[in-house]
Specification:
- The chain is of the alpha+beta class and 489 residues long.
- The strands form 3 sheets. Strands 2-1-6-5-4-3 form a 6-stranded antiparallel sheet. A 5-stranded mixed sheet has the order 8-10-11-13-12. Strands 7-9 form a two-stranded antiparallel sheet.
- The two termini are 58 Å apart.
């Protein structure tokens, strides 16, 4: 069970079902409350209308016996005198609360005359009971004028017993003063059976429909989620196969959509491509480094072995040169390893790049400075010195007579240009020369050049400083290298 809930499909289905359940319960409760309130309002309106109609008949002098009373089960009516005695009403109405129970026969008049107001004990008890039933009405309100009814018809919940059956009703009370100046109270009820039936029907329908709807939502969510996540499963399977085979040339399937899953597949393939390039680059780097290290080590070993057997034949100068060359190559490899590891230059070190250019150009006979003015940059002083040295060394190897160095600013960029008057670099080779261990047959050799790492190191350092390094054609026809780094903030 825990494993099933651990899947995205199961969690999405469960969450969607819970959200829909909460929403449906809240909506159903609101509907039931609104329906009940609406039906109660309708019952209140019916009760008030019946009470006003009977009160108007009494105000116009209609005798009690001739009152047009509705069916007792739907709208029971009782008319009470000031002493709380029932003077008119349907005989089927046995009791009405908050109205008092019917008084004994003969206690009221059915001819429309004013009721007996004697002071006997029964009348006193009936009056007390009537007053108790009317506590919810305002005793300070003045009775209506002769021949008029009260404007308000207060509604109270109550129970009515008709033919021995007691049910809930909404009861309206309306006061009326007859032409005999007797103030009567008309109580009229409206049955709540329709409201109870409607609410019960809706509640039953909800109790039956809610589980069915939740099951439908859960199944639909599971199916839709499964279909939506099918490409993700394909990506997972392919990634597992790539991991098992270690074949980074394989790619995950990309769905023909424009959603998040398609973007995930494209990003995954881009990551695989970057990993493949990185791994291939590392393999090539290791192979080239091994090849480059083999030559000076073999040469140095040969010289030492010859010197050991024949000391007079030891070429000390050649051994020293091979050792220096090996040391430089090891330093270059270590620097490239740090750059590949993502080493970033410090961002709080500020220095004048023009001073570095002047210091590096000092002592080089063919180097001419043009427009080198002070400008501050941030980064690693040693790494930028390495870039300058590599560019000038490369220019000295290929220049015939002159090397021009210019340092300018363009907006927020510091631009260093190193141009020579040599044979230049063909356009199709201008990106390739920045690859590691690459030598152009025409202009690079192991004897008079390096290992093919200088320009690669220079570009990597430029990128780490947030800049660029490009090759082009110089005005003299030779090679032009343009270094761009941001100025200090």
């Amino acid at each position: 069970m825990r494993r099933r809930l651990g899947s995205v499909r199961a969690r999405a289905t469960l969450n969607a079902t819970l959200v829909v359940a909460v929403a449906l319960v809240a909506a159903g409760t609101a509907v039931l409350l609104a329906l009940r309130a609406n039906l109660i309002d309708q019952a209140d309106a019916r009760a008030a209308n019946v009470a006003r109609k009977v009160a108007l008949d009494l105000a116009f002098g209609v005798p009690y016996a001739e009152l047009d009373l509705p069916d007792a089960k739907d709208s029971p009516v009782q008319v009470l005198d000031p002493q709380g005695r029932v003077v008119a009403g349907d005989d089927d109405v046995e009791s009405m609360s908050p109205a008092p129970a019917p008084a004994p026969a003969g206690s009221g008049r059915a001819d429309g005359a004013a009721p007996d107001t004697g002071d006997d004990d029964d009348d006193a008890d009936d009056g007390d009971r009537g007053r108790d039933r009317d506590r919810d009405r305002d005793d300070d309100d003045d009775p209506p004028a002769v021949g008029e009814i009260s404007e308000e018809a207060p509604i109270t919940p109550g129970t009515v017993t008709v033919d021995g059956h007691t049910a809930d009703y909404r009861i309206a009370a309306v006061d009326v003063t007859t032409s005999q100046k007797v103030t009567l109270t008309v109580y009229a009820g409206a049955s709540l059976s329709a409201e109870e039936g409607a609410v019960g029907t809706v509640q039953t329908a909800m109790l039956i429909g809610l589980p069915l709807l939740l099951v439908t939502v859960g199944c639909a969510t599971y199916v839709v989620t499964r279909r939506a996540l099918r490409p993700v499963e394909g990506i997972r399977v392919e990634m597992a196969a790539i991991t098992a085979s270690e074949d980074l040339s394989r790619r995950v399937p990309e769905p023909d959509t424009h959603d998040e899953i398609a973007r995930l597949a494209r990003t995954t393939n881009e990551t695989l491509a970057a990993l493949e390039t990185s791994v291939e680059r590392q393999r090539r780097f290791v192979a080239d480094a091994s090849h480059e290290l083999r030559s000076p080590i073999a040469s140095l070993r040969t010289q030492l072995e010859v010197g050991s057997a024949h000391p007079e034949l030891l070429d000390v100068e050649g051994a020293v040169l091979d050792t220096v060359r090996l040391q430089r190559l090891a330093a270059d490899l270590l620097l490239l390893a740090r750059l590949d590891a993502g080493e970033r230059p410090p961002q709080d070190a500020r220095f004048d790049l023009a001073k570095l250019v002047r210091d590096e150009a000092d002592g080089r006979d063919r180097v001419h400075l043009d427009g080198v003015r002070s400008v501050e940059v941030t980064g690693s002083r040693g790494q930028l010195v390495r870039v300058l040295a590599n560019l000038l060394d490369n220019a000295e190897r290929h220049a015939r007579d002159r090397i021009d160095v210019a340092l300018t600013t363009e907006g927020t960029w510091v631009v260093l240009r190193v141009a020579d008057d040599g044979s230049g670099v063909p356009a199709e080779e201008r990106e390739r020369i920045f690859e590691r261990f690459v030598r152009l047959d025409e202009s690079r050799s192991r004897d008079d050049g390096g290992a093919g790492l200088g320009l690669a190191i220079a570009r990597d350092i430029a990128v780490r400083h947030g800049g660029t390094l490009r090759a082009g054609e110089a005005p003299q026809g030779g090679a032009l290298f343009e270094l761009r780094v941001p100025t200090a903030p």
